[in-house]
Amino acid sequence: MLLEYEELLKRFENMIQRYSIMFSETMVLEAPYDIFYVSDPETYELYYVSGDTADLPAFGNYEGKKCYEVLQGRQEPCPFCTNSLLSTDMYYIWEYFNPVVKRNFMIKDRMIEWKGHRLRVEVAQNVSDQGRPKEILLEASRQQNLLTHWMRCFVEQEDLNTAFSIILKDLKTYFGARSGFIRSFTSVETVQYLSERGDDPGREIPFVNCPTNEMLERWKILLAGKKFIIVRSVAEIEKCDPEMYEFLNAYGLENLCMAPIFSRNQIVGIIGLGNLTKNWTGLSLLEMLGDCIAASVQKKIMQEERSRILYVDTLTGHLNFEGYKLRAGRFLRENPDKNYALCYCDLKKFKFVNELCGYQTGDRLLKYWGDFLAETLREGETFCRISGDTMSVLHYYEDPEEVRSCFEELVRHLSKFPDFVKKRMRVELSGGVYLIPPECHSLPIGEMLSRATMAQKIAKSRPGSELAFYTEEMRQKEIREMDFIANMHEALRDEEFRLYLQPQIDTRPDGGDILRAEVLVRWHQGDKMIAMPGEFIGLFERNGFIVDLDHYMFECACRYLKETSGKYEKQLILSVNVSRITMLQPNFVRDYLQIKEKYGVEDGMIELEFTENVVVEDLEHFAKLVHNLKDHGFLCAMDDFGAGQSSLNVLQALPLDVLKLDQMFFRDKRNEQRKRIIVASILRMAKSLEMLTVAEGIESEGQMRELTEMGCDYIQGYYYSRPLPAEAFERKYLMEDEKEA
Ligand code: C2E
Ligand code: CA
Ligand code: CA
Questions:
Q1: What is the pLDDT of residue 55?
Q2: Cβ(640) to ligand 1 under 6 A?
Q3: Fewer CB atoms near the end CB (10 Å): N or C, the chain?
Q4: Which of 524, 577, 609 to mutate to test the pocket of ligand 1 (most atoms within 8 A of CB)?
Q5: Rounded distance, CA 733 to CA 107, Å?
Q6: Please, what is the angle between helix 445-460 and helix 321-334, to 10°?
Q7: Is the CB of residue 564 less than 8 Å from the CB of residue 572?
Q8: What are the residue ranges in the chain where pLDDT is below 50?
Q9: What are the CA-CA distances from residue 731 to residues 200, 224, 495 (Å)?
Q10: What backbone torsions phi and psi does residue 347 show, to the nearest 5 degrees?
């Protein structure tokens, strides 16, 4: 019959009172001819002598006597006394011949804490019998081996549970126990049960087999006195405590042992064993194991604390990028046969969320997102918030479409975010996926992420929530970019970057002796390969090389102006592109002026093109820059006007010379009528602000005529000419005029 829980607890308490013993006593349980005593290391007063002392009359009545009197028959402390050597957590083992009892002993000394006192415990194992020392040494060495092996387990196993399970198996074998557990009470998750059912499968062993949390709580209290609970024989209890006997027996327990794990004077765990069949004298091993576990758990806690600081994103409470890199790297290493996909997700218009709903809502959304991922991911998968509103997830899959359904599920979940539902806002997510080929598992995570990001850029440009996969084409582009980076410096030195010119044809009836042209770069790689700016400008803007390239192209333009100046009838004005990064260099104006002066370029002969978005970003800075440049004889143009979000009145604030209409107005055929109206009004506005206008990307006669009629001053485009190498340009546009002249 099973007892009620309350009743059970009472039993436990009762049991501890009766059966708990100082663990060292266990060492003498097996051998009645061993002696075990406790004394005060300061006063040498003898507190307790155990063992069968019947045949040792000298030990008779020890109360109030000193240990050396009783045990050694001396008047003074023994000259070989170990008191000064002992510490609480170490044994001091030595061999000794006791003249009183005339026997050889193997002696283990150590200090213990008992009722607030520091006491010395000595266990003297009689080794007068021949084989005994060997036996003791053998057992000691077996225990040493086990301990060494366990320490290694703790070091090598990242996960304490795995270490516990290995150790528990060893324990079971060593003690011939039927069941057992190791349980730590710390935040570190280290629960482990190992058990076999008894012969009667209906009988559970609640003490040592899967104890409930409440039971463990109780054990914790019972073991808090740093004592072991050892019931050598449940059968023997029958006489003195029949109820307890019945209780233990009902669970099939023939014997049991519970050992506390202490760390810094606090109980941090329990080791429990049930139905042991051998090595009762070796139970001290459990205490040493307990110390090992305590140290490992402590280390683990510290590690976790450290990694919480280093590897946890405080906003979401999940991994940050650093932690993610480590974990994802490990999963990939550990699962070489799995198909893995690395995703990069970016919330569209997150700024909008923050502005409309407040930052707290924005933060909550990110946490909501993170929690969802944490809940749905499987073992072997991981994720992190990279920064702001971007996350990365490492999935494994059988079919790549699974990755897509995960993404779709995420989008559905995000759209249920309560604030969005309330405000009827739509969440849009763009994602990129890199399906990691098996041979690329060891690639740096950052590298994989940049591939996923590359794919994500494509998804981002499409409306709604979209997912795109990294493709072979992207890979080729990446390889080409790597090649660009490897060769760019040499290419600059070896003059592989060439000046190409595209004329801007004057449409005005009186336009005549001035020829304008835009300077465009081409990279001549080897004999036939020509790389277009679209392939490398963006890359160079990212890696900063654009500053060198812009300077170089500007210098080429100035040199070209000098070479051609005075040679032809027509006055050449060159317009050179300046990238945002170049423009923001602290010595930008000074450097460009120096080059301009070096080649004696006259004022008004060279123009700098700035793209619209740069201008809008920092209008004030840009306005200053334009004034400064103009003071030094540069013309200034706004490139790609109409592509970004600038408004017409931005133009009023800037004393620009030239306005270039973005190609987009003439590219696709949608909304033609509306575009025409916009173009016409831009042209009117520019005129009233006394700016020259250039239409770029003009490919047909019709476009050319229309723009001319609208009053556009210059036409640049394939209709007249593609960008030409300088020599070809010179032949076609400068020399021909010469001939005509
Ligand atoms: P952009 O400044 O807008 O230059 C005009 C681009 O339009 C040039 O492309 C030109 O070849 C192209 N184009 C001209 N007419 C037509 C046409 O009728 N149809 C079509 N489809 N395209 C036309 P390109 O040379 O490939 O240069 C691309 C971009 O690279 C330039 O756009 C500019 O932003 C940048 N770039 C070129 N050279 C340099 C440079 O030396 N420095 C910097 N920072 N950027 C440069
Ligand atoms: Ca341009
Ligand atoms: Ca342009």
A1: 53
A2: yes
A3: N
A4: 577
A5: 109
A6: 110
A7: yes
A8: 1-3, 23-32, 188-206, 739, 741
A9: 104, 99, 22
A10: -80, 125
Closest CA to 520 of 549, 545, 494, 547: 549
Three-class DSSP labels, 3-29: CCHHHHHHHHHHHHHHHEECHHHHHHC
Residues 24, 287: Cα–Cα separation, whole Å = 10
In whole angstroms, what is the distance from residue 82 CA to residue 109 CA? 8
The neighbour count for residue 486, using CB atoms within 10 Å, is: 10
Tokens describing residue 277: 């069949």
Quickly list H helices, 565-700. Answer: 580-583, 588-598, 612-617, 619-631, 648-652, 664-667, 672-688
Pairing of strands 179-184, 339-347: unpaired
**Phi and psi torsions of 523, nearest 5°:** -105, 110
Residue 663 Cα to ligand 3 middle (Å): 7
Read off the tokens for 242.
């029949």
Q: What is the residue with the minimal CA distance to atom 21 of ligand 1?
A: 697
What is the per-residue pLDDT for 51? 57
Q: Which pLDDT score, from 0 to 100, does residue 26 have?
A: 44
Residue keyed to tokens 């050992």: 259
Q: Which structure tokens are listed for 580?
A: 């945002």
Question: Which tokens hold the place of 221?
Answer: 């209290």
Within 10 A of 428 (CB to CB), how many other CB atoms are there? 18
Q: How many CB atoms lie within 10 A of CB 424?
A: 6
Ligand 1 and 520: CB distance under 6 A: yes
- Rounded to 10°, the helix 242-250/5-19 angle is 120
- Residue 639 in contact with ligand 1 by CB distance below 6 A: yes
The dihedral built from the CA positions of residue 505, 508, 509 and 514, taken in this order, carries a sign that is negative
* Contact indicator for 8, 214 with CB cutoff of 8 Å: no
Q: Which residues, at least 6 apart from 490, have a Cβ–Cβ distance to it below 8 Å?
A: 496
